[in-house]
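Morning F.,

Quick status update on the modeling queue. The single chain you submitted on Monday has been processed. Sequence for confirmation:
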Amino acid sequence: MAIDRNGLASDAFAITPSDATTQRAAALFVGGAGNVAVKTEDGTTLTFTGVQAGSILPVKVLQVLATGTTATTIAGLR
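Structure tokens below.
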């Protein structure tokens, strides 16, 4: 399943940040404030800093990295 043309996700799953595990998502929900380090679908590694609790990051990711991630309760949307 994927995000539909209206921008709505049809599935969500808990993400445990990992520097080794691939967890594809079309967007991320961040439940607890902090930084979110990701590897994007295109292979770019970057850190979103100061993400507020309750935020949605509309970026396609392959991984939420453990190194550099301080945010908690992260969910992948697809």
